[in-house]
């Protein structure tokens, strides 16, 4: 394109030097050649304008940061299965649940057969807490401050304090006053037990039970937390209502009455419902695995999100 510009600029000067009264035909021929050459830059410029590299500094910085985040995430998980991943794998191998997990979708399904019933469990990665991991760090910092505040003299002095507090909030006094709190055996054992373990968080779970030859769905709204399910509501739905509830993101059919609060039912009736669910595999093993799978799913979707955004801005 640069050479074409030189030719175009030099052509008029060349034509003026060779202009005479007897060379009008030559000039006309030269003019046509010059016009043809002048048309070249527009074509070349148009071609290069569609494939020019990006020089947007903000886009380059963002792409580099996304790539760095992606590398860190991959390095941290490469070849190493997390505790959540191991729990999920063990559960799926030891139970007859069929997993339905579509990449890019937040919802997860587990399905199984029981006699003439089809049981479908639904939960979503949206229940993954955004502040996950921050609360523990904050609690540790607060405990450190409390320990420092409590060591103000007397039995609370450095020479007399051994790590820990009594149930009443008083500092425990022991013989190992010269041992740093973090180096004490009982604390190390507790930390080892909790290393790699996931702090539990509540997860909403919807269970839909369908029976062959019967219309409608019996829906249970549950919360999985600390290895237990707590029933929130039990609602019989028509097939149309169940389909509408699923399309709305497993939040339920707004026009349907969800039934009485479960805790207001007769205690014996509550127990029968809980046994009914447990017999169908809605038990403590499943309640434990739901938060684990949400953890695994969230990480997988996060990696996919990083890749897609990086590829777009890069």
TrEMBL record:
Q: Which GO terms describe its cellular component?
A: mitochondrial matrix
Q: Name one GO biological process term.
A: cytosolic ribosome assembly
Bias type Polar residues, positions = 164-178
Question: What Pfam families would the database entry show?
Answer: MAM33
Renumbered to this chain, region (Disordered) spans: 147-203
The record ties this protein, via InterPro entries, to: MAM33, MAM33_sf
Protein known as: Mitochondrial glyco protein
Organism of provenance:
Peltaster fructicola
Record lineage: Eukaryota, Fungi, Dikarya, Ascomycota, Pezizomycotina
């Amino acid at each position: 394109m640069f050479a074409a510009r030189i030719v175009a600029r030099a052509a008029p000067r060349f034509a003026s030097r060779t202009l005479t009264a007897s060379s009008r035909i030559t000039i006309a021929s030269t003019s046509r050649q010059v016009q043809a050459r002048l048309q070249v830059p527009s074509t070349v410029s148009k071609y290069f304008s569609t494939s020019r590299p990006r020089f947007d500094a903000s886009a380059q910085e963002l792409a580099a940061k996304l790539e760095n985040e992606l590398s860190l995430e991959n390095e941290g998980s490469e070849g190493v299965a997390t505790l959540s991943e191991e729990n999920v794998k063990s559960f799926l191998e030891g139970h007859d649940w069929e997993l339905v997990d579509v990449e890019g979708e937040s919802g997860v399904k587990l399905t199984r057969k029981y006699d003439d019933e089809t049981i479908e469990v639904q939960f979503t990665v949206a229940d993954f807490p955004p502040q996950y991991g921050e609360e523990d760090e904050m609690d540790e910092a607060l405990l450190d401050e409390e320990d420092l505040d409590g060591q103000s003299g007397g039995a609370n002095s450095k020479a007399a304090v051994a790590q820990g507090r009594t149930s009443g909030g008083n500092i425990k006094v022991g013989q190992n006053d010269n041992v740093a709190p973090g180096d004490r055996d009982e604390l190390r054992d507790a930390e080892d037990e909790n290393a790699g373990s996931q702090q539990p968080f509540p997860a909403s779970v919807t269970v839909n039970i369908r029976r062959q030859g019967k219309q409608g769905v019996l829906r249970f709204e549950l919360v999985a937390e600390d290895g237990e399910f707590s029933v929130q509501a039990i609602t019989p739905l028509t097939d149309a209502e169940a389909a509408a509830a699923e399309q709305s993101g497993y939040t339920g059919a707004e026009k349907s009455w969800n039934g009485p609060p479960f805790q207001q039912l007769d205690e014996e009736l509550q127990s029968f419902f809980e046994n009914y669910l447990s017999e169908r595999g809605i038990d403590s093993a499943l309640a434990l695995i739901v938060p684990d799978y949400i953890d695994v799913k969230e990480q997988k979707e996060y990696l996919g999100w990083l890749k897609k955004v990086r590829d777009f801005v890069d």
